[in-house]
Amino acid sequence: MGNAKRIAKRIAAGAMKRWLEEVSVEMGLDGEINEDVMAEGQRRLDSRSQPLQRPPAALSSVKPAAKLLEELPTIDGVKPKARVNEEGVLQLSAEEGDGLLDYYGESRGGYPYIHPELEEWAASEGCFFEWVNPGIVTMHEA
């Protein structure tokens, strides 16, 4: 094991010890670390690492991304290049050169650009667009 890894392990171990001492104090044990404190620390860590639960579709007023993909408008004779990613989020490509999306806004004053009709469509669906990187825009519930 390299020196940097050993140092990182010591720092992490020290931080974990201090955190467990804080848990112990909260439990009224004056900083003593015992099996009960370790179990409570593990319970707290487990509760923090639970994956985020998505609300049931019935609670959302937004259509599923696959349906939005089908309904994506054609603008100036161009249908935006889009897909639904593995997380179920609608993504539009800004790399097609169709003029509908332009992160750098080279011909529009240097600001990121999303065609106004796309913006209006997203708003009418209760959503907005957000740039992930210069090549991808994602659609999210407002």
What can you see in these coordinates?
It is a single chain. The chain has helices spanning 3-26, 35-48, 65-71, 116-124, and strands at residues 82-84, 90-93, 101-102, 113-114, 127-133, 136-141. It has 142 residues and is of the alpha+beta class. The chain has 2 domains: 3-48, no CATH class; 57-141. The strands form 2 sheets. It has a 4-stranded antiparallel β-sheet. The protein has a two-stranded antiparallel sheet with strand order 3-4. α1 (3-26) crosses α2.
Name some characteristics of this structure.
2 domains; four-stranded antiparallel sheet; 4 helices; two-stranded antiparallel ribbon; 142 residues; alpha+beta
Query: How many angstroms does the end-to-end distance come to?
Result: 48 Å
The percent of residues in helical segments reads 25-40%
Number of individual domains: 2
Taken in chain order, the helices and strands follow as HHHEEEEHEE
Describe the structure concisely:
The protein has 142 residues and is α+β, with helices and mostly antiparallel strands.
What is the secondary structure topology, with strand pairs?
Blueprint: H1 3-26, H2 35-48, H3 65-71, E1 82-84, E2 90-93, E3 101-102, E4 113-114, H4 116-124, E5 127-133, E6 136-141
Helix pairs in contact: 1-2
